[in-house]
Amino acid sequence: MDVRAASIRFCASLGQMGHPEAPTAATLLGEPLPVELMNTVGIDRKDVQDALGDDASVTAWLRAIDDRLRCEAGATVGPAAVGGATEHDLADRLRALRDALRRLAAEVTEDPRPPVTSVIPERQNAIDTLNALAAAWPELRWPSGGDPVPVFRTSGTTGDLAVAFIAHQAVDLFTDGRRKQLRACLAPGCLLYFLKQHPRREWCSAVCGNRARVARHYQRHHIDSRPTAAERTRRSRP
User: Fold this and answer.
1) How many CB atoms are closer than 10 A to CB 25?
2) How far apart are CA 185 and CA 1, in angstroms?
3) Is the whole model's pTM more than 0.90, yes or no?
4) DSSP per residue, 180-215
5) Rounded distance, CA 34 to CA 38, Å?
6) Poorest-confidence range of 47-61, 72-86, 118-132, 137-151?
7) Phi, psi at residue 42, to the nearest 5°?
8) Is the pLDDT of residue 84 over 80?
């Protein structure tokens, strides 16, 4: 049994519960945190919605994943960690990380969807951004009578650690076997990514699966049934 993978799945289940007092507009699917960050853009009634559109939204998203940060990194992001003069800088760095991750994910998945966040034209620029923000390192915590666990550290605040830890996880994601599991959800009106950890999974969620099936049904019974130009000409003859 992969204990590390089981621990990550448990932490992800905490994140799906969310914080009622810290709502976020982002869809949380229980994916690895770098993928959750990629998924902070979506479509609502054909308009692109950015769940990190302002500093307050960034703070709400960080608080929504607070349980996962505590579980996976050994850190918590409370109000004091993301408030005050550093809030705007922290928000800028998280959005920059999100844009870099989506740029790299689009390449890995051969994503046919047009970019919806700040365009990073050069692949190396996205890599440089990720590397610059991944300044987190693990330290050993081994309480007496307990099990040893890694705790992540950075030179800044716990808010800084949140960004650095997600970037650190993204380096792992793109360099291990999970890179090949990364998929773009190609259901109509979806901009999200997911890890295909089950051979039958094709969509990010059941909602997108239903939407794709409805679109295929419409295609078969409406668009495909329309007469061709030649058929319309034959029908118009006396």
Assistant:
1) 17
2) 29
3) no
4) GGEEE--STT---EEE--STT--SSSHHHHHHHHHH
5) 6
6) 72-86
7) -155, -175
8) no
